[in-house]
Known about the structure:
By secondary structure, this protein is of the alpha/beta class. The chain has a domain at 8-94 and 142-155: Rossmann fold, CATH 3.40.50. It has five helices and seven strands; from the N terminus they run E-H-E-H-E-H-E-H-E-E-E-H. The strands form two sheets. Strands 2-1-3-4 form a four-stranded parallel sheet, with helices on both faces. The protein has a three-stranded antiparallel sheet with strand order 5-6-7, with no helix packed on it. Helix 1 crosses helix 4. The longest helix has 13 residues, at 143-155. The protein is globular. The termini are far apart. The mean pLDDT is 91. The chain binds zinc ion (ZN).
Amino acid sequence: xxxxxxxxxxxxxxxxxxxxxxxxxxxxxxxxxxxxxxxxxxxxxxxxxxxxxxxxxxxxxxxxxxxxxxxxxxxxxxxxxxxxxxxxxxxxxxxxxxxxxxxxxxxxxxxxxxxxxxxxxxxxxxxxxxxxxxxxxxxxxxxxxxxxxxxxxxxxxx
Length: 158
Ligand SMILES: [Zn+2]
């Protein structure tokens, strides 16, 4: 099997919402909280991940270690952050639930015929289950927020 050309990311604790969006867009994204910089950076080196950070200290260490990094020096909306990553050619903003990853844990999602839910089940819906944490997803009402954010990201520039 050919390996996926999609870049992998490691997002710092200040950018949790961005991490969830990258996962929804299908990018393998780690997100750390309360973890030492050194541990984050060695994982990035090991797994060839690009660091996305607002933490100056972390940015400096990544540069010293020659780890690819996108460093944001100020607070920005999630759509703006996404548009910046798009503008530098790192990501595309095409949402396709089939290739999404679990926004909670970064696990792969697979379609499931028999989701273990009893309330609000609709036969015509496609359900997805996270291979890692077992969370069930479907394309529902919360999609309008996701689509709006991605729509904004498409027209904004960094
Ligand atoms: Zn999961």
